[in-house]
């Protein structure tokens, strides 16, 4: 099993010097780590427990996915990571800008009705400045979340490319070995073919030589037969 490792999940809050007024009791939903984030794997940490707590899922359900469906477990960890960073950014802004998330948020000035005192220009300017600041803060949070999501997608895509490259290299090695074996078999077949051609050539030469010897023997027999017939004919003439 090879789950996607995350070490960023342990770095819950960064730059704690910027938050001197924050107490650990006020941040009970988060975890603090004094040392540097360590490399987390399924074997040496409670990664399933962390993912289950972030996504509000059953730990046994997450553990079953980690053991049986590693690909779905990786997507689940990416989802937990994105949710974690959204909650983290929201929590930091609650501490740094509490007026943005307070129950009594500054409202836009309503149109002055008859019989009421109109809003002063200074108060109106203060509300407009705060609304602009709130928009910038919200946009900053969105940009941070979008950048983190983009980095997560790039890391996942890079991992897929590395796995594809490793698989392709293994396939190339296997094909290269098969080609070498085919070359060796081809050389052996060529040697056998050359030996067969040599044997055929020798056999043809032997056949030609044997044919010549057979023809010479037949000529000798014909000459002998002709000489015998001539001698018998001469004997008959003498008797007459």
Model description:
This protein is an all-alpha fold. It has a domain at about 1-85. Helix content is about 70%, strand content about 0%. It has helices at about 45-55, 60-70, 70-95, 100, 120-240. α1 crosses α3, α2 crosses α3 and α3 runs antiparallel to α5. The radius of gyration is 49 Å and the shape is rod-shaped. GO terms for molecular function: DNA binding; DNA-binding transcription factor activity, RNA polymerase II-specific. It comes from Paramecium tetraurelia. Keywords: DNA-binding, Nucleus, Transcription, Transcription regulation. This is BZIP domain-containing protein. It holds the Pfam family bZIP_1.
Q: Which radius of gyration do the C-alpha atoms yield?
A: 49 Å
Largest sheet: none
In whole angstroms, how far apart are the ends?
A: 121 Å
Structural class assignment: mainly alpha
Shape: rod-shaped
Low-confidence stretches are 1-45
Please tell me the overall pLDDT. 70
| Strand elements, count | 0
* Count of helical stretches: 5
- The proportion of strand residues reads under 5%
Helix/strand order, N-terminal first? HHHHH
Relative helix content: over 70%
Family: Belongs to the bZIP family.
Domain BZIP: 133-196
Subcellular location: Nucleus
Keywords: DNA-binding, Nucleus, Transcription, Transcription regulation
In short:
The chain has 240 residues and is mainly alpha-helical. The protein contains 5 helices and no strands. Pfam families: bZIP_1 (PF00170).
């Amino acid at each position: 099993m090879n789950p996607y490792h995350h070490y960023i999940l342990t770095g819950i809050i960064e730059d704690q010097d910027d938050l001197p007024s924050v107490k650990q009791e006020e941040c009970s939903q988060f975890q603090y780590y004094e040392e540097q984030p360590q490399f987390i794997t399924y074997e040496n940490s409670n990664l399933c427990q962390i993912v289950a707590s972030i996504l509000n899922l059953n730990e046994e359900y997450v553990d079953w996915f980690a053991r049986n469906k590693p690909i779905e477990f990786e997507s689940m960890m990416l989802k937990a990571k994105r949710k974690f960073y959204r909650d983290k950014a929201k929590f930091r802004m609650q501490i740094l800008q509490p007026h943005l998330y307070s129950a009594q948020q500054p409202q836009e000035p309503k149109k002055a009705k008859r019989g009421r005192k109109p809003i002063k220009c200074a108060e109106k300017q203060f509300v407009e400045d705060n609304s602009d600041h709130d928009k910038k803060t919200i946009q900053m949070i969105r940009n941070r979340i979008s950048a983190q999501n983009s980095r997560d997608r790039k890391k996942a895509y890079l991992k897929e490319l590395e796995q594809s490259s490793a698989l392709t290299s293994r396939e190339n090695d296997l094909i290269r070995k098969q080609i070498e074996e085919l070359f060796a078999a081809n050389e052996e077949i060529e040697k056998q073919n050359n030996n067969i051609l040599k044997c055929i050539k020798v056999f043809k030469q032997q056949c030609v030589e044997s044919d010549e010897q057979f023809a010479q023997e037949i000529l000798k027999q014909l000459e002998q037969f002709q000489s015998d017939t001539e001698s018998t004919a001469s004997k008959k003439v003498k008797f007459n």
